[in-house]
Amino acid sequence: MGAYNSNLDDIMEEDMHHWYTKFMKESPSGLITLFELKTMLEMTGMTEEANSYVDQVFITFDMDGDGYMDFVEYIAAISLLLKGEINQKLKWYFKLFDQDGNGKIDKQEMETIFKAIQDITRSYEVPPEDIVTLVYEKIDIHGEGELTLEEFISGARDHPDIMDMLTKMMDLTNVLEIIVRGQRKPVVY
Q1: Contact, 42 vs 185, CB < 8 A?
Q2: Which pLDDT tens digit goes with each residue over 48-91?
Q3: Whole-angstrom Cα distance, residue 122 to residue 149?
Q4: Which of 7, 36, 148, 155 shows a CA-CA span of 20 to 30 A to 16?
Q5: pLDDT, tens digit, for every residue of 30-57?
Q6: What is the Cα–Cα distance from 177 to 162, expressed in whole angstroms?
Q7: Which residues pair with 135 in a beta bridge?
Q8: Burial class, 137, CB count within 10 angstroms (exposed 0-12 / middle 13-18 / buried 19+)
Q9: Beta strands in the chain (DSSP E)
Q10: 83 with 12: CB under 8 angstroms?
């Protein structure tokens, strides 16, 4: 990952025209649908949780909520993942976990996302229930079983072990590698 990581760091320094050309080649309509994203990232035959996670990632990057990812949203997503400040990433993680959009993350929402991530990465080292229990024991300061954005950000920042775990679990480097390399399988209809 080390040598490739340096290439990822240089991505945003490339000519914007190059990125626009690449985007238009992948999606000639100028818009990427959820189905096209899943096809581009070779994500088929996933579990229900994994499928839901990919849907949620798409929704968080579809900033105007029109059901498509346009070039500006595409660049913003790549920029956040590569160059985003920690507070920006934590806000994005929170939005991803908050599946019902009520401004709070409950244990079930967090567990669902962690299960999905494990299904996608095929890494089952720590049960999602154990991860959620650890997170809530350390950062649910009021013991309500829900985390607000403020609790989530301050809790993650105050507990380096939680921050490290979130950073590792939410790492989308493999997705970026597919985007950078353009390894898109042709869609057969």
Answers
A1: yes
A2: 777 777 888 888 889 899 999 998 888 888 777 777 788 888 89
A3: 29
A4: 36
A5: 998 988 877 776 666 677 777 777 888 8
A6: 25
A7: none
A8: exposed
A9: 31-32, 69-70, 104-106, 146-148
A10: yes
Nearest Cα residue to 118 out of 107, 130, 110, 126: 126
Sequence-distant (≥ 6) Cβ neighbours of residue 112 within 8 angstroms:
49, 52, 53, 99
Tell me the backbone φ, ψ of residue 89, rounded to 5 degrees.
Answer: -65, -40
Alpha-carbon distances, residue 86 vs 81, 83, 92, 134, 139 (angstroms): 10, 9, 10, 21, 17
**Candidate ranges 13-27, 145-159, 169-183; pick with highest mean pLDDT:** 145-159
Please give the Cα distance from 77 to 61 (Å, whole number).
6
Closest CA to 95 of 46, 132, 58: 58
Which strand (E) or helix (H) includes residue 185? none
Phi, psi of 45 (to 5 degrees): 70, 30
Place of tokens 């945003």: 12
Block residue for tokens 């760091």: 9
The pLDDT of 16-36, averaged and rounded, is 83
